[in-house]
Amino acid sequence: MHTFIIALISLSVTALSNVPAGADVHEDNGQVTINPDPTANDTVPPDLPITATIFSGVPGPSKCRGKVVLRLEISPPTTNETGQIQGERKCWNMLQPVGCGNFVASKQAGCEARLFSEPNCQMYLNTAVFIPELRAVGGWWRSMDVKCGIPPPDPETLGEPPLQGGLIRNKTV
């Protein structure tokens, strides 16, 4: 009986040693909730490389599955004499149909990948926006084009979300 209790105590101590650095651990009623440090991802390096990694499989719960089919490292967009960012679209054909990709870049790079179901960037399917973290983008595509240097949308010109009025309800008591 005593050996069993000691084993349980050593298991819980071992589990807490695997907590990421800077995580905040709260214990409540025997349940453990781990909250990562909220400031950990606030500063993204400005020189974050622009990469697209394409996999043969489909997205899993958190990562792409399968073998790496293509890994692109894209040069950052250039600016012209007037200070405008210039970027060209370039089309890449896959050797086989692919089902998942990670598109990573800083938000300042303004990159997007348009995904197509046919070779030579024909039959548009979806757009993947490059973000500063690994997040699986699923689909089934045969080609894609990438462009960087796209300016972010102006929040003032976007207006209110079209369904916002229908989703917010006034609570009357």
Automatic annotation (TrEMBL):
The keyword Signal applies. Residues 154-173 are annotated as: Disordered. Residues 1-17 form the signal peptide. Keywords: Signal. This is Uncharacterized protein. It comes from Podospora fimiseda. The lineage of its organism: Eukaryota, Fungi, Dikarya, Ascomycota, Pezizomycotina.
